[in-house]
Amino acid sequence: MTKLIPYGHQLIDDDDVKSVIKVLKSGWLTQGPTILKFEKKLASYVKSKYAVAVSSGTAALHLACLATRIVPGDEVIVPTLSFVATANCVLYCGAKPVLVDVYEDTLTINVEEAEKKVTKKTKAIIAVDFAGHPADWEKLKKLAQDHKLILIDDAAHALGSRCQSKMIGSIADLTCFSFHPVKTITTGEGGAVTTNNKKNYDRLITLRHHGITKNENVSKKYGGWFYEINELGYNYRMTDIQAALGISQLKKIDKFIKIRREIWQKYNKSFDEIRGLTLPIEKKGSFCAWHLYPVRFNQEVLGIDRKVIFEKLQTEGLGVQVHYIPIHMHDLYRKRFGYKAGDFPVAEQYYKEVLSLPLFPKMANAEINFVVKTLKDAIR
Ligand SMILES: *Cc1c(COP(=O)(O)O)cnc(C)c1O
Questions:
Q1: Nearest alpha carbon, ligand 1 atom 6
Q2: What whole-number distance in Å separates Cα of residue 274 and Cα of residue 296?
Q3: I need a labelling partner for 29 at 20 to 30 A (CA). Which of 21, 198, 277, 356 fits?
Q4: Which domain holds residue 218?
C-alpha cells in the first residue's frame, strides 16, 4: 500500500453533497432555517430537550463553561487523559482546571480520585467518554449531587453511545459534541451543546452570538433595531452550509456506528490471542459508538518499544496515532500549575503504551485485513 490509511476519516456521499448545494443555492448561508432544523434533529437523536449548534467542539466546551458561570476563582475537575481542549475551556474562563487520573479499564475519569479533589471552590466536573466509552455517569451523578456540582460531558468521541440505556447527550447538565471530520459525523468544523435545561439553552443561544438578546416588547418601545448586550459573548455560530451537512450525516449515523462496532469486533477477534496487547472493551451496561480503537502494547511481554511499532506501522502505511499526551504533561499545564511526571500513573502508563488503529466507516474490508496483518507482522 502506498497511501496512508488514517486513524479516522469522514464518509461523504452524494446525498451530503446535494444537501450542501441546496443550501448554497437557497440564499441563507448562515443564521438561516437549517441550523434550527439540525438542532432539533440532533436533540431528538440524543433524547435531549435542546441542542445548540456551534462552530467547533472547543466552542461547545467554552460555551458550556460560560453557561455554567465558571469564573476566575472557580475550580473545575477534568481528567488528564483527553485532548487538551477539555481543560483549555476552563482556562478560557479564567478558572483552574484540577486534573485527575483515569480508570485503567475504560480510561474515563476516576470518580473516587475526583471526589478527593473537591474543594469549596469546585464548581463543575468535565468528564470525557473516552474513545466512545461512557464515563461512569451513575457515580458522577451521585458525586455531583453530594457536592452540588455541575456535570459537563465532553462527548466529542461519543455521539450515539449509551450509558445504562440512556443516550449520551441526555445525561449530564450540558453535553458537548464535535463534528470534526474524524468524529462520528462531520460538518467540516462544528460542534454542539445539548441540555435539558431551558435557562442553559437561552444562555448558550445568547453567548454564541455576541451576548445579544432581543426582547420584542422592548424593541417595540425603542425601535425595531434595538437589542441589548448584558454579557460578553462570542461569534461561535455554525453556518447553514455546515448544518445541512450535519442533517444529512445524522441520517446515516446508525449505519456509521454499526460499521465502527463491526471493525472493533473484528480487531478484537483478530488480536485476542496475542499476549502483550490490551484491547478496548465495552463494560456491561455501556454501548460504545467507538471513535477510536486504542491498543496498548506491553513492552516487556512483546520485547518491542511502542515508538518502534509506531514507526514500523507508519512506514507500512498505517496512520496510527497516540491519543493522547496527558494534559498535565504539556508545558502550559506543568509551568502554570506545577504538575510533573508521576502525578497520574494510570494515564502516564497508558500514554507510554498506546496506539490508535485506523477505525472509520469508509474502511474497505481489504484495509481492515491489511491493518490486522501489518500489525501482527510488526510485533512478531
Ligand atoms: C475533538 C475533540 C475536542 C475538540 O473538538 P473540535 O471540534 O476539534 O474543536 C474536544 N475534546 C475531545 C475529547 C475531542 O476529541
A1: 57
A2: 12
A3: 198
A4: 5-250
